[in-house]
Give the backbone structure.
Amino acid sequence: MFKKILIANRGEIATRIVHACRSMGILSVVLYESEDISSLHVRLADECVLLDAPDGFLNMEAIIRIARQVNADAIHPGYGFLAEEPEFAQACAAAGLVFIGPSADTMEQVRSKINALYVVAAAGFTTVEYSEFSYGHDELSDIPQAAAKMGFPLVIKSCRGGRGLGERWVDSAEKLETVVRNAQAQSLDRYGDQRVYLEKGILPAHQVGVQILGDKHGNLIHLGEREGSIISRGNKIVEESPAPCLSDEQRQSLHAEALEIARLFNYENAGTVEFIVDADGNFHFTEIKSRIQVEHPLTEMRSGVDLIREQIRIAAGEPLAISQDTITLRGHAIMCRVLARDPWAEFMAAPGELTRVRFPCGAQVRVDTYVYCNAEIPLIYEPLIGKLTAWDRDRTSCIGRMETTLQDTKLIGIQTNIAYLQRILESAEFCDGTYSTDLDVQPFGDRRQPIEHYRDLAIIAATLYVKRNQAHTKNEMSTQRNGGWKQSARRMAMRGE
Amino acid sequence: MYTIAVTVGGHDFEVTIKQTSPNGDRFAAQVDGIEHDVIVPDPGQQGPNEWMIVGDRPYEILFDEDLKTLRVYSGKHHIKVRDTRSAITRPESGDGRVKAPIPGLIARVLVEKGQQVSADDALIVLEAMKMENEIRAPRSGVVTSIRVKPGDSVVRNTVLVEVS
């Protein structure tokens, strides 16, 4: 087994991997950029090293150099950043380091999405309909014909997978060129490759992924599926397992199909085989995610398997400790992503300092996060600040537990999407499990409250007003400069109130 | 003793309020002739109050600096608060200066000087937290100045555009 693992990631997933290492008696080394020094992973690891490189966590050379300096024997890439780059896996091997993930060869095959679709379709499975070719800047003129052949709506996707590039929908020929140009620009910016391809859009649909684990000894198992159909501005925000859109019979055949598809790529380590399930219950393979996924706690809550620990064991050459027969998937799990985005300002980014923090407590509730009271939410990373996962014996009880969990969670100092998550959980479509990718929940509710509720709000507002006036008077008497609303009270006074 | 007029949820309330403890953690609020006890725990704290008890009902609250919105478990509510002793009310929106609500990097400027814009038109794309955030016009008018260009780093409250 490894003695020391370098974690080439940050935030909640780095914290999660530190925990797994510690539970296995393996030393952990984390990296941080100067903006990120107050994140939890930096405090909890056995060693922390400043990553001083212009492109930070995308800089393979800097990361491998540090890994060698600290005498690590393996690198865990987490998700995002370099997790799905076969070149990184190769560079690790060349430097004598074990990359904790699939083989570089498998990663190469599934990173090219057209290739993966081709291999899977050739083996006789149903895939989403996709364009035969990919297109660069100089091939824009070929796209309308291919689009017309496939029909709208279409999804424009980058040929290079990974790092969560949102898919772009087009519903008419007029918008096609603009959308393709934007997608190419973003793909070039993120992956250094502008090529995109077209996929036939399926609506309404369900996005379902099957968690798989394979070792170096030919054992391959699944750990059930997760549904991630609720997407807001490019982020999946509420996910659950099992998927409410599947019958038990469909579920079994989906799991079997996922295993067969994974075998086509000699898959080892953790991965997710993803499908679109259409309104008639047909599965369409879309891609393989060759990494640990953000939503992996759902599977851990139901199976009791620590997926990060398994990833490390598999990479060290150990056989799977569990077999398909010994896995029991119990009950229901729901996970909500807490994002620093303001649901009342068009989901704008909301960086800043957390002044007060209260995380949920109670049985069967799990929190994955990198923040704590007085921590700074950096401006330069993605807006995920934590994940709340609840487990219960059935879906209805689990929804109730998740609602309590959301209400218990308080993050003061920045805006978060928690109130929006609450609205999704109480929507009729979520409650009865009939939602799909076209679920549309508005952040503002039109639920009327009894007049007594508004009377209480009026009393609260009046009390706040009075307290502010008192603070204002007190401030005038002292020269002390206080932050926040007291300053604002002074500004109001200057405006003549 | 204050008499405060509050509009919320389409209802107008008049709240008469007085402090009932020396350290400022208890108030009595009268609405329509009925008195309600208000407890404001932790009165000496820095920063905004985050919870309050009205009658025997606890409320976790979040409100903006200008007391224009109030958030509780039932959602976010627009409020209007006015001291009945002063006749002055603030205008709905301030001047036409559009400021950066968060720090970030200017990704794109979508308007030109002299351009006519309508309320809610996108003016600037501000990049932060790996996302593109659209900054929109607070009201209709003409763009009289553009103070930033793509690639500029801005701090919170930097004036980006003026609309008059």
